[in-house]
Each structure stands twice: as structure tokens, then as C-alpha cells.
Inverse folding.
């Protein structure tokens, strides 16, 4: 058991050292350059400001957690106070996502705790959990690989469906009809899309690196098809990687790499320093990052594994939400149920 702990600690240390060394060539701090609305394709700068005008870092964090062996949607203040259960029915929920104005929440609903291979319902409800309704029933979606994406005015939800990996279908909240289609450009290494940026100008997804053949994640600009391989610094390492998540201004991204989170520019902006955020102890890992509205903070899941007294195979896994600055400082835990996942701020 002691050797296993030492191996974990060494593994984390080596990976963090490699990440820090590779990414240390840039200079700027994301906390100082994020938070400014970007130009976007489907709306103006003013539209973006209007959508976010009443939203700041006091906004509630929405997430999923287990209640009587069923995944339900909750919201909580960033300081951990006043957690509220928003859904009550017996079906499972995951991937809750705020609209830009934080007046609505989209999520997936499914029949069991293992949705792989099943159909899911695309759902929406008000911020207080009222008016829960189905936008589109029985979609073939893998919730592990994607979550709903809102358009700028909160009237369309985009989802990636299993049978069409390179496409996002946009469904109107009003009647569930397909009203838009977002496709990956032909000249990009990405082959599977997982999200649309909040300003609708960027697509995030995954594909094989043409040189190493390893699975990488990246972004592509819809206007000109210019893509960015976010895994370029790790091109020779087979690593576990998570999906891309966006800052609200669409200028920055975060994603998990093995046990830690990387924060960087969505297209290697000059002068931006990518930052690896580390777990708090050797038996933990960070996952599911979510930017605060200003881009100054992150919410994420810290998953801790405690080895049982019967051996390494006997383990207790607890996952809770932590909030920290975007450079990893001042981390604090805001939930303690041990069953939390999928935060979105």
C-alpha cells in the first residue's frame, strides 16, 4: 500500500513538472487578461454584454449529485451556502449548463445510471427548478463526451449526437425543432465535436494527431477554419484528456489532463501563460473545470480515493466541488456530500 502511494505521488509530480516546463515559455497571467467580451460570429459585442449584464461571480453554481441512488440537479452559492435541490423525479440527470443570462438551465435526463448506449432527453428548466420541460426527447447522445451548448440569446440548444460525431444540431427551445447545424470544417484534425463556444465563434472537439496518432483535443475558428491543437505540448505522451470547456468570453479554455487541469488561451494568444492546476493531495485528482462569469475563478471536481483496509481494490471514492482562483490559488471546498459531479458556474 505504501509503495502504491509513493507511485501515485511520483506520477503526479513527474507529470506536473513536465507540464510546467513545457508551458513556462509564455508570460501573462490568465487572471489579468480574461474577462473581456470577444467579438463573435452570431452576435455583436454589445449582444454579449447585454446577455451577461446582470451576471457576476456571485452567480450560483449548478451541478449534479446523488440522492437516494438517483442523480439530481442542484445549485449552490460559490461560498458553499444555500445548496438547493432543483429536480425531484426518479430519472437520472447530468451535464447541467446555465444559459448566458443564468435564467435557464439545460441538462440531460436518462433512465438509469449508465446512459451509454441509451437515449437521453434534452431538458430545460428555470433557474429555480420550475417549468421543467423536454426540448427534444430520445436523442442518441453520450453524456460522457459532450454537454448542451447555448446560443447567445438562450433560444437554441446545441448537442452532438452519436451518429453524427462532427456535427452539432441546434434545437429551438420553443418547439424542439432543429433550426441550425454547426459542422466541423473539412480542413481540421478534429473529427468529433463536443461544444460550441458561448460567442458561437469557436468549436471544440477531438481528433487524432496526424504525426503521433494519439487522441488530442483542440479548437477551430468557424470564420476561417483555423484550428489549434491544445495538446501540442504533450504530443508524444498518451494521456487521459477531458473535454474542452470555455470561459464566458470564449477567449480561454480549460481541460483535464490525467489528474490535473490546464488553463490556456483558446488559440495560443501571444503572451498568455498556460497554467497547470494541481490536486491538493496525492490521492486526489481534478476534473470537470468550469469558469466563473468573470473568468477569474474555476469550479471543479476534486475526486479523492481512499484505500480500504482490505487492500488496494477496496476503495472509497468521494467527489466534491472546489472553487479556486484561475491560477489555482485559494482553493476551498463548497460541497461535502461526496457524490457531486458536472459543475457549471
Amino acid at each position: 500500500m505504501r509503495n502504491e502511494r509513493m507511485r501515485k505521488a511520483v506520477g503526479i509530480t513527474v507529470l506536473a513538472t513536465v507540464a510546467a516546463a513545457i508551458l513556462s515559455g509564455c508570460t501573462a497571467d490568465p487572471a489579468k487578461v480574461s474577462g473581456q467580451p470577444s467579438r463573435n460570429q452570431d452576435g455583436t459585442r454589445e449582444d454579449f454584454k447585454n446577455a451577461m449584464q446582470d451576471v457576476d461571480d456571485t452567480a450560483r453554481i449548478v451541478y449534479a449529485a446523488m440522492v437516494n441512488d438517483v442523480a439530481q440537479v442542484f445549485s449552490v452559492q460559490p461560498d458553499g451556502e444555500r445548496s438547493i435541490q432543483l429536480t425531484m423525479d426518479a430519472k437520472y440527470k447530468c451535464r447541467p449548463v446555465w444559459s448566458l443570462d443564468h435564467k435557464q438551465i439545460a441538462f440531460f435526463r436518462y433512465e438509469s445510471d449508465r446512459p451509454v448506449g441509451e437515449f437521453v432527453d434534452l431538458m430545460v428548466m428555470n433557474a429555480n427548478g420550475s417549468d421543467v420541460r423536454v426540448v427534444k426527447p430520445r436523442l442518441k447522445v453520450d453524456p460522457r463526451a459532450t454537454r448542451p451548448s447555448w446560443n447567445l440569446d438562450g433560444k437554441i440548444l446545441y448537442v452532438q449526437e452519436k451518429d453524427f460525431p462532427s456535427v452539432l444540431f441546434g434545437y429551438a427551445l420553443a418547439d424542439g425543432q432543429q433550426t441550425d447545424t454547426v459542422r466541423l470544417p473539412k480542413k481540421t484534425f478534429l473529427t468529433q465535436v463536443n461544444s460550441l463556444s458561448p460567442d458561437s465563434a469557436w468549436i471544440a472537439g477531438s481528433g487524432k494527431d496526424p504525426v503521433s496518432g494519439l487522441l488530442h483535443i483542440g479548437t477551430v475558428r468557424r470564420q476561417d477554419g483555423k484550428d489549434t491543437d491544445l495538446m501540442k505540448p504533450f504530443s508524444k505522451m498518451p494521456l487521459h484528456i477531458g473535454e474542452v470547456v470555455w470561459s464566458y468570453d470564449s477567449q480561454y479554455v480549460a481541460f483535464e489532463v490525467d489528474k490535473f487541469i490546464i488553463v490556456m488561451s483558446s488559440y495560443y494568444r501571444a503572451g498568455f501563460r498556460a497554467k497547470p492546476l494541481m490536486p491538493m493531495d496525492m490521492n486526489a485528482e481534478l476534473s470537470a473545470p468550469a469558469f466563473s462569469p468573470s473568468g477569474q475563478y474555476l469550479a471543479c471536481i476534486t475526486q479523492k480515493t481512499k484505500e480500504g483496509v482490505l487492500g488496494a481494490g477496496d476503495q472509497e471514492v468521494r467527489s466534491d466541488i472546489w472553487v479556486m482562483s484561475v491560477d489555482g490559488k485559494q482553493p476551498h471546498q463548497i460541497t461535502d456530500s461526496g457524490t457531486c459531479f458536472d459543475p457549471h458556474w
Residues 2-344 form a domain with the Neuraminidase fold (CATH 2.120.10.30).
